[in-house]
From TrEMBL:
One of its GO terms (molecular function) is GTP binding. Residues 282-330, 403-455 form a coiled coil. This is AAA+ ATPase domain-containing protein. PROSITE patterns: SIGMA54_INTERACT_1. It comes from the Eukaryota. It comes from Phoxinus phoxinus (Eurasian minnow). Residues 47-192 form the AAA+ ATPase domain. Keywords: Coiled coil, Nucleotide-binding. PANTHER family: G DOMAIN-CONTAINING PROTEIN, IMMUNE-ASSOCIATED NUCLEOTIDE-BINDING PROTEIN 10-LIKE. Belongs to the TRAFAC class TrmE-Era-EngA-EngB-Septin-like GTPase superfamily. AIG1/Toc34/Toc159-like paraseptin GTPase family. IAN subfamily.
Amino acid sequence: MDKIIDQCIRVEGGNPTRYLLQTNSDNLNQSEPFRKITFGERDKYKPHKTILMVGETGTGKTTLINAMINYMLSVKREDKVWFEITDDQSDRTSAHSQTISITVYGFYPQESKTDLTIIDTPGYGDTRGADLDKQIAESLLSLCKSAEGIHEIDAVCLVMMAHQNRLSDRQRYIFDAVQSLFGRDIAENIILLFTHSTGARPKAALTAVKEAKVKCAVNDKNQPVCFLFDNCQSETADEEDEEEDDEDHEPRMDQSWNCSFRGMAGLFKLLDNIKPKGLEMTRNVVQKRKQLEANISNLKERVQVMELKLNELKQTQAALEKNKEHITENKNFEYEVEVPYKEKVDIDRSVAKEAMCCSVCEENCHYPGCWWVSKIKWCSVMKAEHCRVCSNKCHYSKHVKEAKIYKTKTKKEKRKYEDLKKKYDGKIGHGVSLVQKLEEELQELEKEKIKLVIEAFDCVETLQMIALNTDSVIILLHIDFLIKKLKEINEPEKVEILENIKKRVGEGNTAALGYMTRLLN
């Protein structure tokens, strides 16, 4: 114990005396959207466990992480010490730190038989907006892909307070968001950790979890696997805490330590026996989810432009029909149409800080959600150095990342028949009239619209097959728009598939969707 204390900074005296472990920090000024904090040296011959911690602010997740550290160091109540590995990011002011959404704690003490990696996700469901939650997804994806990153996970720990009898809309949203990140193979590795527990089984909280249809591991009685913890271990004990309780003749602080010790013993026994899951399917889910969001966002803009262009062509056709005599006599005439055009405008900073746009197609290829990478070719919508979203699939060098986006506007414009003929010079003749050529353009625009709508539908269908949370908020957020567009292109079977998704949406999904909608607004 003294050896550990020598490697610590004393934070506060008392019973217990609190110490902050002296750790090494990596990636603080580098390009990764996560940071690593490590204690000790990783021993490749030791068993190693990796867990992901998720919970609403105020549930005691930070204290729980520190409780794991103390359990692994075999700290007892009578030692009157408490070790901490966590720190507060709130006072970090660098540009990089402001984008960090997850912290990876590597805990490798010589005193423990097991090495542990804890992935902490502060800020999930934060009132700062849904964009922060997308950052968490991006961070986890980057972490999975990095050379020294996380390639398998032993447990996803959902943290909530034991006395809750219902899940708030925010919690439903958090759990939905987390489950939307993973492939369907991870369900048996999701476990519940109840904090602020008295040691009694949290029946109301478990009922709330079941009603919210939170997918998690179950025991042989088909009950959710859960562990209980009292978060008072690090609090300074006074004389009252040391006095025996009339009911069970055990001091309050002893109760706290014993409750948490039992919970930790159960948790680590499970970790010893649980089969870790590879993250390949999870990587696919996150990539497909990001593709869906980028496709839908770009689709909405392009459909808007197409429909305005269709309107322009129809107005041109109507003008030609109206002036048949002038056309027959080869006379020039003027007509008026409403035409779309693009203009760059400042981003709404409440939605996003930056966007990645194509200067050739004049399209917003990644907006919102393009927040981390400094180099455009690293953006998630790029593949083989080309954009997967913009109309012409342009090279990354044709893209810019800035606090501006393209916005489609319309204006009335007077045109001349002779200019229209010049535009199509060489494209008409051999029995093909100008009117027919305009019809062909209309049909090409409709084909492009159909292609985009089908691509977005395919993303939804893939997520339905591989994602743990098949009816996630991300899908529900866009489903009405897709249904409308599929009806327009006469795809009744695909409409029925999406309508069936809507029909099976439960109360939990609806509440989570409502919370996300409020975040976006």
